[in-house]
Amino acid sequence: MTGTTETSSVKAAAGAATAPAPAPAPRPARLWRGATPWLFLLAPLALLIVFTYAPIANMIAYSFTDWDGVSPELRWTGAGNYAELFTRPELFEVFWVSGYYLAASVVQIVAALYFATILSFNVRFRNFFKGVLFFPYLINGVAIGFVFLYFFQDGGTLDSVLGLLGVQTDRAWLGTPASANTSLAAVSVWRYLGLNFVLFLGAIQSIPGELYEAAELDGANRWHQFRHIIAPGIKPVLSLTVILSISGSLSVFEIPYIMTGGATGTETFVIQTVKLAFQFNKTGLASAAAIVLLLIVLAVTWVQRRLAPDDKVDLV
């Protein structure tokens, strides 16, 4: 009986080995299977082209004309707009204002990293503090501008709070370039702190918990855990936040535009570009300025990536 079973098994194995391979799928089915992912991408790609790349292409074309934004006629000027930009240094002096926001972004990154590190451990009411830190980022920028406009005005909320604390001041917070830019930069720190906080918190929580347990067994305190585990583990995210902070500092718009309109030495490059287009009807020159700003941001990003490339992080 055993021999018969073994013989049957051998025959079955031989039959399976000599069985014909399954026929390949028909060509139309293979083509449909290959095209299916592109069908899912069709709608987002169409939106991206229509609302991103097509406007950029139009802006590049307008930068070589003298279009005023209203007239249906366009006159080709070549590189005249770019020549005007680089022969008028006052158009680039507004980049000094970005220095305030760049310094504020350093404070913002340090504070976000500090809170993310603290709240990644078991502390009381940590979910409440997470919500408090992230909430400002959810508020509309226009609303934030109007709220802080009343906050910094003479006799406003800030002066009232300082008066309750016994500090009397007659300082015009938005009256001088230094104090106005410092106040506006502080508002940007308050608003965007939550975004960097969430990025850092997500990166820290993605680090395996076994590393913290092993570090505690070896006698490492919180500082050692941050230095040897957290800091190397969040390096790619830290690099990303630096890029976002630099590009954001160069392209600040809504907060100073709403609160001061660019007055009192608070005009940024983007506000200046908007005024060229809609106040002075120089859409061609404004388009050239926007292209220059885009190239500056790309160049700064490239330099930053070259100086601090993303290395593969392997903590385990």
Account of the protein in words:
The protein has 316 residues and is mainly alpha-helical. 70% of the residues lie in helices and 0% in strands. It is flat.
What is the compact description of this entry?
This protein has 14 helices and no strands. It has 316 residues and is mainly alpha-helical. The longest helix has 36 residues, at 27-62.
Q: Portion of residues in helices? A: 55-70%
Class per helix and strand makeup: mainly alpha
Shape: flat
> How many individual β-strands?
0
Strand content of the residues, in percent?
Answer: under 5%
Largest sheet: none
Residue-averaged pLDDT, rounded?
84
The secondary-structure element order is HHHHHHHHHHHHHH
Unreliable stretches (pLDDT < 50, length at least 5) are 10-17
**Count of alpha and pi helical runs:** 14
Termini distance? 56 Å
What is Rg?
29 Å
List keywords for this structure.
316 residues, mainly alpha, 70% helix, flat
Please render the helix and strand layout as text.
Layout lengths: L1 H16 L9 H36 L17 H7 L11 H22 L6 H13 L2 H12 L4 H8 L12 H29 L3 H9 L4 H12 L1 H16 L3 H6 L9 H10 L4 H25 L9
Helix pairs in contact: 3-14, 4-8, 4-11, 5-8, 11-14, 13-14
